[in-house]
Design a protein that fits this description.
By secondary structure, the chain is an alpha+beta fold. The chain folds into 2 domains: 78 residues, no CATH class; 283 residues, 3-Layer(bba) Sandwich (YerB-like fold), CATH 3.50.90.10. It has 8 helices and 24 strands. A hairpin with a 4-residue loop joins strand 12 and strand 13. The model has no long low-confidence stretch (mean pLDDT 92).
């Protein structure tokens, strides 16, 4: 009963207080008049004026304190300038959506038909057999209609799906990747078995291994059907800053208007800085790297170069590679026209790679997409 009365009072607090003050004002008016007219004996007209002044003053003060206090607070709060809380644009830090990691074909014949990289928040590039590279694109809370073309897995790409706790999407696999996916218990979607996650664009003038595409909608449907966990409590790989970071005042910084990364004699990844837009435009072998659907050239806000050496897998007749990505090494962080030397370290296949300045402080990256170039030692030219 008492709780109900309190709730009613809270709901109609202003009206109830106004009525109470009205009654008290009346009593004050009557009491003041009686005091001055009856007890002190002052003329009734003067007593009436005094009574009116006192009661009005009483009503004004009590109403201000007890009746209209919330409106005064609202007025005060409304007078304060509203400052919107800054939030990241590249990802939602409050979201626990599990990301997708998709193997993207990057061979020259298929590159011109690529789509979806601009919607990825992180893209890894690494070497595979034959001196070519493949990409691993990460998507989170994104709605992307065309991603690909999607190619087969290599075992060391799994480490980067694992460090981001991502559902791994690929079309086929190498023998070691097949074994590792099973051994490591990786939630994967493989086009060989999960064909509903893919569409074949057979009209493209390329062979069948280059025409499989997917979408975030298709990946989600298949992942849910397979019973995969759709949320993740793993920390974001990179430490993003909502405020623009400049490397201009960092020790050992260097100008980075042009970046060339030589993976092999047949693949050199190029970036050129656009000062007006504050992004790097991406090319491969000095040919603009563009999206097949939008026709726009791909760009990067951040570039991380990690020097990681590669070697041939013994007794592999296809020339497949190993990379020395467990351990530590050096590299560069590049953004907004400058580069600084960094170190990288990765203690295990499931553990996240940590990128630090030379003073041991973990780097912060600008709000935007990031290309992580895992490339052979001394392969980068920065100018």
């Amino acid at each position: 009963m008492i709780d109900k009365c309190l709730k009613l009072y809270k709901k109609y607090e202003e009206i109830i207080n106004y009525l109470i003050v009205g009654v008290l004002t009346t009593l004050v008016s009557i009491g003041t008049y009686g005091l001055f007219a009856k007890i002190i004996g002052i003329n009734y007209l003067i007593s009436n004026i005094i009574s009116w002044v006192v009661s009005v003053a009483f009503a004004y003060i009590t109403n201000k304190i007890f009746v209209f206090k919330n409106k005064e607070k609202e007025k005060t709060n409304n007078d304060k300038p509203v400052v919107a809380e800054k939030k990241l644009k590249i990802i939602d830090e409050e979201s626990n959506t599990r990301p997708y990691a998709v193997m993207i074909n990057n061979i020259a014949v298929a590159r011109k038909y690529q789509s979806g990289l601009d919607d990825a928040y992180i893209v890894y590039e690494m070497i595979v057999e034959g001196g070519i590279t493949r990409l691993l694109a990460l998507y989170k809370d994104a709605n992307v209609d065309r991603i690909g073309s999607v190619r087969s897995s290599r075992h060391y790409y799994l480490d980067y799906a694992l460090e981001n706790d991502a559902i791994y999407v690929h079309f086929g696999w190498s023998p070691q990747a097949q074994s590792d996916i099973k051994t490591l218990g990786i939630n994967n979607i493989n086009g060989i078995y999960d064909d509903s996650a893919f569409v074949r664009e057979s009209k493209l003038p390329v062979s069948w291994e280059h025409n499989a595409f997917t979408s975030t909608k298709k990946i989600t449907a298949v992942a849910k059907n397979k019973g995969y966990r759709m949320t993740s409590d793993k920390d974001t790989l990179l430490n993003y800053s909502v405020d623009e970071i400049s490397l201009e005042n960092e020790e050992e910084k260097q100008v980075a208007n042009k970046v060339d990364i030589k993976y092999s004699n047949s693949v050199i990844t190029n970036y050129e800085y656009n000062e007006k837009e504050k992004v790097y435009y991406r090319s491969v072998n000095n040919v603009e790297h563009t999206d097949y659907v939008t026709k726009k050239q791909y760009t990067a806000k951040n570039i991380i170069i990690a020097y990681i050496d590669n070697s041939y897998i013994s007794n592999d007749d296809k020339g497949r590679q190993n990379i020395d990505n467990i351990g530590s090494g050096i590299g560069y962080y590049i953004t907004d026209g400058y580069a600084i030397p960094i170190t990288w370290s990765k203690s295990g296949r499931k553990e996240q790679t940590v990128y630090k300045k030379k003073n041991g402080e973990e780097i912060k990256v600008n709000d935007g997409n990031t290309y992580i170039q895992n490339a052979p030692s001394n392969s980068a030219t920065i100018s």
